[in-house]
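User: Please predict the structure of the protein below. I'd like the answer in structure-token form so I can feed it into my own downstream comparison script.

Assistant: Understood. Taking the following sequence of 137 residues as input:
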Amino acid sequence: METQKHQKVKMLVAKNLFFLVTLFLINSCYSLKKSKKNDSYKIEVFKSKNNFSTYLNLQAFHYKKKKEKYYSTYWINNFIFSEHNLNRLSLHILPGKFEIESEAIGKESIKLKDFEVKRGDSIIISFFLKDSKEVLN
């Protein structure tokens, strides 16, 4: 009876230790650096542990229905990129300054100028696109 109780205690300690180690490893790989938000976009900046890999992730949503995703076209330093599905556009980039614009049919475009990306940043930009006032033909 005592050995069975001892084994249960050991198993509980092992599970708790495993949980803490897993939590520590996840937390040490990426940490939230900063977040910036306004009505038109939300920027989340994460820092990679190796401080080397740099990523830019772009996604577009409805202005009022924040979870309704749009197919969007992105202009990044005058190069055009397009989503092929409703996942975010993910690019491995070099650090530097960028001009980023998101646009979709029937929506107003949003442009970020002089957006700086540093080495080791993993950035998620969510654009919230308003309906355009221009009439579509």
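That's the full token string. The two ends are 81 Å apart (CA to CA).
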